[in-house]
């Protein structure tokens, strides 16, 4: 009898979209697959800001535990939610081809507030990376915490007296809820691995590793590895305003990374173009350069503030 591959997923519409994408890919290869839904701490507490509840792994821990306890065979994550250090016994089995990477501004009526330097706009986001980059560009604006799944956040934006909120483009487009009143923020550098989906399994489960391996997209896996190396070397996580984006262009890698203070007043940015042969080290080297230029003081200040 063929083994049924059990895919663990959160219950949100976006998480289920991601898990079903993996399910469909595995079924196309002839595997029998079922979904197992599991609540995460991040889904249960929708009030406390992420940076106050130990955000590292908050959306992945419950699935990791289920995986290690053999309740599921595979877990599917938004890659940007995954800590750079995976738990012992769990490995990255595949990274799917990347979707949209940029952030998206969803506004309520118009974007006129962006043109008025004296107007105090009310902007909502749960991401301190987005908050820091926004305040660097619009220091007069007021930021508000916005938690919950995509649909919950869209509804809260509609209900609150806010001008706009910031979302990941991939999250809205994948489930078909991107409003017409939205625009991509080309100037905002995304989170490391934003738009990518990671599939993990137990490191000793050779049969599952073999089944998942064909799903791996090599270019996406390389670029997200570079971004996560940058993040890890800066010793950051979701509680640190760190951005990174790597793309492959022929035989070269183009990398951009940045580190902001929490209020956006201090900023370190870096850009590199390297041949593919040098790609494995570029994220680490870029982070080390930022630390040497004074970025270590920003990291220390953020840690002291927490």
Give a written overview of the molecule.
Strand 11 (242-249) and strand 12 form a beta hairpin. Residues 42-56 have low confidence and may be disordered. The protein is an alpha/beta fold. It has helices at 13-28, 41-44, 61-68, 128-137, 150-159, 169-174, 206-212, 218-233, 279-305; strands spanning 4-9, 32-37, 74-78, 90-95, 103-107, 122-124, 142-144, 164-168, 182-184, 197-202, 242-249, 252-260, 267-275. 34% of the residues lie in helices and 24% in strands. The chain has 3 domains: 4-96 and 196-216, D-Maltodextrin-Binding Protein, domain 2, CATH 3.40.190; 103-184, Periplasmic binding protein-like II (D-Maltodextrin-Binding Protein, domain 2, 3-Layer(aba) Sandwich), CATH 3.40.190; 231-305, Porphobilinogen deaminase, C-terminal domain (Double Stranded RNA Binding Domain, 2-Layer Sandwich), CATH 3.30.160. It contains 9 helices and 13 strands. The strands form 3 sheets. A 5-stranded mixed sheet has the order 2-1-3-10-4, sandwiched between helices. A 5-stranded mixed sheet has the order 7-6-8-5-9, sandwiched between helices.
What's the helix-strand series? EHEHHEEEEHEHEHEEHHEEEH
- Please tell me the overall pLDDT: 91
Tell me the Rg in angstroms. 19 Å
Low-pLDDT windows of residues: 42-56
Shape: globular
The CATH class of the largest domain, by name, is Alpha Beta
Number of strands: 13
Intertermini distance: 52 Å
Number of contiguous helices: 9
Q: Could you say what the CATH topology of the largest domain is called?
A: D-Maltodextrin-Binding Protein, domain 2
CATH superfamily of the largest domain: Periplasmic binding protein-like II
Structural domain tally: 3
Structural class: alpha/beta
Strand order of the largest sheet: 2-1-3-10-4
Largest sheet: 5 strands, mixed
CATH architectural name of the largest domain = 3-Layer(aba) Sandwich
């Amino acid at each position: 009898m063929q083994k049924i591959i059990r895919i663990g997923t959160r219950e949100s519409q976006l998480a289920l979209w991601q898990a079903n994408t993996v399910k469909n890919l595995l079924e196309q290869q002839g595997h029998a697959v079922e979904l197992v839904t599991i609540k995460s701490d991040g889904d249960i507490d929708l009030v406390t800001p992420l940076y106050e509840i130990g955000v590292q792994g908050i959306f992945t821990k419950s699935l990791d535990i289920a995986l290690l306890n053999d309740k599921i065979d595979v877990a599917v994550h938004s890659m940007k939610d995954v800590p750079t250090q995976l738990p012992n016994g769990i490995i990255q089995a595949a990274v799917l081809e990347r979707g949209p990477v940029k952030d998206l501004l969803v506004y309520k009526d118009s974007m006129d507030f962006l043109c008025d330097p004296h107007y105090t706009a009310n902007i909502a986001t749960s991401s301190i990376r987005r908050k820091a980059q926004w305040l660097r560009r619009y220091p007069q604006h007021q930021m508000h915490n916005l938690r919950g799944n995509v649909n919950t956040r869209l509804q809260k934006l509609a209900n609150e007296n806010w001008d706009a909120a910031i979302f990941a483009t991939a999250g809205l487009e994948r489930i078909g809820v991107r409003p017409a009143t939205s625009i991509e923020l080309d100037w905002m550098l995304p989170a490391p691995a934003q738009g990518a989906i990671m599939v993990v399994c137990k490191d000793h489960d050779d049969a599952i590793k073999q089944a998942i391996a064909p799903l791996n997209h090599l270019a996406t896996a390389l670029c997200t590895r570079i971004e996560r190396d940058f993040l890890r070397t800066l010793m950051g996580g979701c509680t640190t305003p760190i951005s990174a984006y790597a793309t492959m262009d022929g035989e070269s890698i183009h990398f951009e990374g940045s580190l902001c203070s929490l209020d956006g007043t201090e900023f370190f940015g870096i850009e590199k173009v390297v041949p593919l042969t040098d790609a494995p080290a570029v994220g680490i080297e870029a982070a080390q350069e930022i630390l040497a230029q004074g970025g270590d003081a920003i990291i220390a200040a953020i840690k002291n503030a927490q």
